[in-house]
């Protein structure tokens, strides 16, 4: 009887472990499908791009053109006053540009999926992970910064003072609007507690199977005990 129960327990443990593996593979496939369909576009991307272009243009004019005009129009000013005016103009122009980049530098303009360029995969141990490409505006305003990362391994929560940053990709702060992402991508990037229907179904099936195994074990124990008692009664009479 004990050997039979141990055999049933081993079978149940095997079934539960295989179910977990299958559920994990199914969840990974569902996540990959969601990542392939990512097509994120920010609602304020165009406005922020224009602000940065205007800011860098004003910075260039203040640093290069304004001191030259002051020197040409007021060449008789003392050198100390010219240096003071140039310093104030430079600090004001660069300070506003740096502050604008600090606020909106992590703002993602668009994000889309890309595949790894490594095509020489031989065997099942080498896999091409699904990557995401996020585009942000550089500090110079007229160029974009491209950030490619693996959302499953390269993403960490953001901790800092940037107002527009809610996750880090390869230690680079980025910001996306959560309402513009699907639940799976939002969970990977922002680590929100979003329930997965597939995992819940797997857990329910494993728990129901475990309950049925327990009921069957108790039934076998009761049947074995009753048959043993009946045999002892027959031997007694």
Automatic annotation (TrEMBL):
Region (Disordered): 196-237
Residue stretches in coiled coil: none
GO cellular component, one term: mitochondrial membrane
UniProt GO BP: mitochondrial proton-transporting ATP synthase complex assembly
Keywords from the named record: Membrane, Transmembrane, Transmembrane helix
TM segment ranges: 53-72, 84-109
Protein name according to UniProt: Transmembrane protein 186
Organism taxonomic ancestry: Eukaryota, Sar, Stramenopiles, Ochrophyta, Bacillariophyta
